[in-house]
Write a structure and sequence with these properties.
There is one protein chain. The protein is α+β, with helices and mostly antiparallel strands and 63 residues long. The protein has a domain of 42 residues. The chain is built from 1 helix and 4 strands. Strands 1-2-3-4 form a 4-stranded antiparallel beta sheet. It is globular. InterPro entries: DUF397.
Length: 63
């Protein structure tokens, strides 16, 4: 499991109050971006290099 010490989590801006499929991202740590499922915060955490995360988000925004 990735070290999550000091991670400042924020919920996706696409989340709503009905508890749908949401993720949280912590991008304040050096050299990594952490992603987890809001419904299972103690479950697995994905770890991305910052460049890979930016590429993923850019691709997702294209639809």
């Amino acid at each position: 499991m990735s070290d999550r010490t000091g991670a400042e989590w924020r919920k996706s801006s696409r989340s709503n109050g009905s508890g749908g499929a949401c993720i949280e991202v912590a991008d304040n740590l050096p050299a990594r971006v952490l992603v987890r499922d809001t419904k299972d915060r103690d479950g697995g955490t994905l770890t991305f290099a910052p460049d890979a995360w930016r590429a993923f988000v850019g691709f997702a925004k294209q639809g």
